Amino acid sequence: ETALRDSFHQDLDKSFTVVLQPLHDTKTECLIGAECLMRWTLEGKPISPAEFIPIVESTGDINKLTLFTLSQIRKTVEHLQSEGMDCKHYMFAINISVVEILDVKFESKLLAALAQHNIDPKRIKLELTESALIDNFSYVNEVLVSLQSKGFTISIDDFGTGFSSLSYLCKLNFDEIKIDRSFVTNVVKDSKLQSVFNSIVSLAKNLDKPLVAEGVEDMEQMIYAKAKGVQYVQGYYYSKPLPIDAFVEYVLEDK
Ligand code: G
Ligand code: G
Ligand code: NA
């Protein structure tokens, strides 16, 4: 872990990359954007986010990855535009750690980076994991309200895995629920998964929030999600997360 920590500081620009996983609308099947995921290769070996994100959080450097991700969104948009693609309506989802939100300068840093890269906050979804939202609830919620007022979409990630009380959902300011892939992959063949999936669907409907399903691996799962009224999907059925150039190719083919 210490070795990883030391390498992180030498490495940020050189060996971190952002990959983009396409997000599709279930009604039209059109591409609507992508989730941005960080990748780190150290001495030729990939290190999983599950391993490095906690380390980067603990060193106080997680915001650097977020700002780096925004620079890569700009790069993607410029690349798409240079290919003549109109991508003004695309949404880019980025993963935010609650550790970052607790920094009082979080919002101003985020807005400054977006201005620098000429990105409208209306095109950014901020994904926050459910479990992490419970601690520091009042403060985090205040920040979320402010971010929403600037145009950001707030998405609750890994929904259903946090064992959290449902009462916080009534108080939390968010825009969208992202159902965890553990309830999505295999849903078609497993009646227990269907029960959980359907409960989340009706919860989202009653709260009047759109749903995103991740981990959609085949057409049956996509059709299931669509039939249940899930608005957006991502997963291997459409594409794995792609490096920027490959994502641009994907967009060109999707057109
Ligand atoms: O690709 P997968 O293993 O790529 O990613 C697993 C998880 O790692 C994501 O769902 C997300 O929670 C986390 N993750 C990936 N990239 C980032 C990032 O840039 N910032 C934060 N905070 N988390 C990330
Ligand atoms: O934390 P989050 O759930 O956002 O991270 C997404 C993770 O899930 C990434 O590691 C990504 O590579 C992986 N992933 C994306 N699509 C699929 C899929 O269809 N099936 C499975 N098993 N994993 C996926
Ligand atoms: Na995510």
Automatic annotation (TrEMBL):
Domain EAL, residue spans: 1-255
GO molecular function: cyclic-guanylate-specific phosphodiesterase activity
Protein name as it appears in the record: EAL domain-containing protein
Species for this entry: Pseudoalteromonas luteoviolacea DSM 6061
Location of this fragment in the whole protein: 278 to 532 of 540
